[in-house]
Amino acid sequence: MPKSILVTGGTKGIGRAIIERFAAEGFSIATCARNESDLKRLREELDRQFPSIQVLTEVADLSKKQEVMRFAKQVQDFCEVDVLVNNTGLFLPGAIHDEPEGNFELMMHTNLFSAYYLTRALTGQMIKRRSGHIFSIGSIAGLTAYPNGGSYAISKWAMLGMTKCLREEMKPHQVKVTSILPGATYTASWEGVDLPIERFMKASDVAESVWAAYNLSPQTVVEEVIIRPQLGDL
């Protein structure tokens, strides 16, 4: 029976690169996004490139708890998840003291609460099987304070803390937990900036790091992966 991976926010950037990397290894794919047309295009491309794998794509806004829980049920009906990648994220720049009202709540619900609820929904299967790997896609913004980070940085610091706690909880159950902490990666959110593309990391490099961390022996876990552009942070 093929292994399966669930990647939230899988239509673009790092999420999509991770899906393509694991699909190339024969994994069944489950993913979600808010945009139905983006999901349709992803599904069509996966069907064309990897016709032998099973794919589940669902429209879901993971900033809403009820949508997270609905999506979790759909995934559980589709497969037993071997790899969970909490990748859904939203970045709205701003300073804590004057960012627009509601930024904090929206980014905490999107970047942190979605991962919390989805992880709680799926860890039971992994504990029962005594196998599985959970990845959180954080950010160097969860390690280093910088101007204009605002609520985004708060959510990423919290995500790292949650992942560390989860790692300790899952140790006795043989479930691995890994934080991926990328620097500036060229995705749609950076399009149009006045910087050379070569200054950014490639999403495919982040995906390769996830695959490498997953592909170790059962006796070994990579707890954190910090990845930065060769020339340093932007």
UniProtKB/TrEMBL annotation:
<dbReference type="InterPro" id="IPR020904">
    <property type="entry name" value="Sc_DH/Rdtase_CS"/>
</dbReference>
<dbReference type="InterPro" id="IPR002347">
    <property type="entry name" value="SDR_fam"/>
</dbReference>
<protein>
    <submittedName>
        <fullName>Short-chain dehydrogenase</fullName>
    </submittedName>
</protein>
<keyword id="KW-0560">Oxidoreductase</keyword>
<comment type="similarity">
    <text>Belongs to the short-chain dehydrogenases/reductases (SDR) family.</text>
</comment>
<dbReference type="GO" id="GO:0016491">
    <property type="term" value="F:oxidoreductase activity"/>
</dbReference>
<dbReference type="Pfam" id="PF00106">
    <property type="entry name" value="adh_short"/>
</dbReference>
<dbReference type="InterPro" id="IPR036291">
    <property type="entry name" value="NAD(P)-bd_dom_sf"/>
</dbReference>
